[in-house]
Amino acid sequence: MLIFSVSEYKNRLTKTKESMEKQGIDVLLVTDPANMNYLTGFDAWSFYVHQLLIVIADEEEPIWVGRGIDASAAEITTWLKQESIIPYPDNYVQSTERHPMDFVANIIEEKGQANKTIAAEYDAYYFTAKNYIQLTKKLPNAKFVDGTSLVNWIRIVKSDGEIDLIKKAATIVTQTMYKGIEKINAGVRECDVVADIFHKQISGTDEFGGDYTSIVPLLPSGEKTSACHLTWTDEKYKEGDPVILELAGCHKRYHSPLARTLVIGQPTPEMEELADAAIEGIEAALDVIKPGTTCEQVELAWRKSIEKRGFEKESRIGYSTGLNYPPDWGEHTASLRPGDTTILQPNMVFHMIPGIWMDTYGIEISETFRVTENGCEVLADVERKLFIK
Amino acid sequence: MLIFSVSEYKNRLTKTKESMEKQGIDVLLVTDPANMNYLTGFDAWSFYVHQLLIVIADEEEPIWVGRGIDASAAEITTWLKQESIIPYPDNYVQSTERHPMDFVANIIEEKGQANKTIAAEYDAYYFTAKNYIQLTKKLPNAKFVDGTSLVNWIRIVKSDGEIDLIKKAATIVTQTMYKGIEKINAGVRECDVVADIFHKQISGTDEFGGDYTSIVPLLPSGEKTSACHLTWTDEKYKEGDPVILELAGCHKRYHSPLARTLVIGQPTPEMEELADAAIEGIEAALDVIKPGTTCEQVELAWRKSIEKRGFEKESRIGYSTGLNYPPDWGEHTASLRPGDTTILQPNMVFHMIPGIWMDTYGIEISETFRVTENGCEVLADVERKLFIK
Questions:
Q1: Which CATH number is correct for A160-388, 3.90.230.10, 3.30.70.660, 3.20.20.70, 3.30.1490.100?
Q2: I need a labelling partner for B386 at 20 to 30 A (CA). Which of A364, B1, B139, B296 fits?
Q3: What residues does the Creatinase N-terminal domain cover (chains A, B) (predicted)?
């Protein structure tokens, strides 16, 4: 069930070890499910219990540690040898007496790493405070350091194989976005539109299917468009409602996100003005993208463009995306925002989503793009406009 | 948009403060999205950035702290006063220079709580090691203690209003399970079956719609039934495949999970024997449930029943469920397993899921039940058998 060749996984591991060496790290604990997948292929909905990879600089393979009943998923989905898959007993699960990190600490000790420099992803969702407290207690002679996003930064430049999966995801999101726009009408329940969106996201195309996206479809409508992360309700759309659709296609855990805004009926002049400003701004930003440009330069092009129309936006306008698991499809590395001097390179992929939210309404029009050799390539194929139903 | 009356939320807050007082806690930081929802109504897909409630024993209302663009979701979905909603600026998001917990520490300081006993949910998914490290650094005079599952334990006994939502979720899962079983056939792609399952989960019924479930549908087939948390692929079902369906209905974030197993074609005698053992075991366990029984007694009834057939199962056979967000619909409190002496009370709800996995095949047949005044009530209405297609 490996998605990539074993040599691609090993190449990723080599880069990880190089980064560890530069930072003086002997052991890296990888908890982020996307990073676990990136290095080994591991893919299962088991991140709701503690699991991680132990990457030891001096050992050839990472060690997978997880719950007993998930060891067979590791055997099926990874390139790891059987002896590199070490399950913990079920009485460690959500126990007040035993913690899985006690088990992990024992392995680190057995491998002779208890007095080394150990990095963990301190700010990753699934590396809890309790993990940190237990590990530092059980391994008092180790030096613990922050390894947040170490692997994420390696993920930022994609291989051609990864780009292929992201393009498949873009095909799915193109079809899904048109399906959602088609289904939204006055009198239709929000949940029924989202049901059709999910159906298209998961069934995908005749050639390839879709996976679950790391964020569910977000479709705020009416005054709720000012609150961008609300999910759907049982309510019916009403004439005059603006509706934001933010969703993604996903194929083999690789994402291509996309947002569009529509109005049921006649948009207000304010909405039209907002949409024109957003589209102009996106185009201005896309125009400056090429290898060598920095992330903050892309944001600046957007900001200068919308300022001409008298608009301001305070949050970042985009982020690196690709392989991921809930709750986020962002990679937590480069952001398109002031102060981010990351230099764009070919095969980086970003979701540029410069929403503008006013007090009682808002607009989101976005594109996911790949940096090419001399510019950028927009991945989905959905008209860039304010849709009117 | 409040789901329950303000007095129900305040009653939950009172119970939380009583539990805080018993444990000598002055300030509780609530990061678990289900606990945030439980106390305030807050409901948005914003848990991918740092957010929390600060519950101060001496203050009437909790304080919501989250990202600026999510403050309007807090205004729309909670009963909190505007001044209790404190957003942090966007340059705190995934920054290497600023951390949202610095912002939280300032609020705690301003509220005169910097030298008090502060509890946080140390082992909750979204309370990272970095949160802990920043808070303890910024508030050196506070005493930090573990508040994991403090609110979860209050959630374990449901109100009648909550039971009503869980029953609606059970109606959805009943219809969804039959839809999934109907669609699975040799030659059909797994992703197409899951697309129909999602559609039913989200569209719900004519009377009420469905929400996203905290775990996606899990449908391992063939030899993959030995790996219970694998998700679907683009592959086609084959004649002879066993297929496990583990899914839930969800209504306004309240879940009712359910699992069934089917075989495409003729089951092997081993599968039939396994199914008979599982069904007998579930029935034996359901028979002993009533207020006053302990969780471990329920597991013991199951274990004794399957032992008669020569089977053993090492993992827990169930857990408390209800309100939740990804990645888990379990509440992380009581488990049906040896050593858990939690006493069953009316309006507790459990998902009893005693899967048995052999080396190359497995079976899952489950029920979600409510403890009643004198026994239990099974919530979904799906035949308890090995389905044969």
A1: 3.90.230.10
A2: B296
A3: 12-157
B4-55 pLDDT, tens digit per residue, is 999 999 999 999 999 999 999 999 999 999 999 999 999 999 999 999 999 9
B2 in A contact zone (CB under 8 Å): no
Question: How far, in Å, are B281, B310, B362 from residue B306 at the CA level?
Answer: 6, 6, 15
Of the candidates A92, A94, A21, A16, the one whose C-alpha atom is nearest the C-alpha of residue A55 is A16
Cα B39 → chain centroid:
16
Alpha helices in chain B (DSSP H): 6-22, 33-40, 71-77, 100-110, 129-138, 150-155, 160-183, 190-203, 269-288, 295-307
Give the dihedral of Cα atoms A102, A103, A107, A113; nearest 10 deg: -20
pLDDT at residue B112 in the model: 98
Residues A290-304: b if buried by 16+ CB within 10 A, e if exposed: ebebbbbbbbbbbbe
Please give the pLDDT value at position B314. 67
CB contact under 8 A, B48 and A215: yes
Please provide the distance, in angstroms rounded to a whole number, between the alpha carbons at the two ends of chain B: 43
Q: How far apart are the two ends of chain A, measured CA to CA in Å?
A: 43
Q: What is the mean predicted confidence (pLDDT) over A103-122?
A: 98
pLDDT in tens, A195-215: 999 999 999 999 999 999 999
Q: Which candidate, A172, A150, A163, A140, places its Cα nearest to that of A32? A: A150
Note the pLDDT tens digit of each residue in B64-87.
999 998 999 999 999 999 999 999
Contact A133 B122 (CB under 8 A): yes
Interface check A43 vs B, CB under 8 A: yes
Question: Which class would CATH give B6-155?
Answer: alpha beta
Distance CA A270, CA A261 (A): 14
**B6-155 and B160-388 agree in CATH topology:** no
- List the single residue in B124, B204, B209 with the smallest CB-CB distance to A128: B124
**Three-class SS of A27-55:** EEEECCHHHHHHHHCCCCCCCCCCCEEEE
Whether B64 and chain A come into contact, CB under 8 Å, resolves to no
Chain A nearest-CA distance from B251, in A, is 10
CA dist A160 to A157, B111, B298, B321, B325, Å? 10, 53, 53, 43, 34
Q: Which residue of A has its CA nearest to B336?
A: A91
What SS3 class is residue B80?
coil
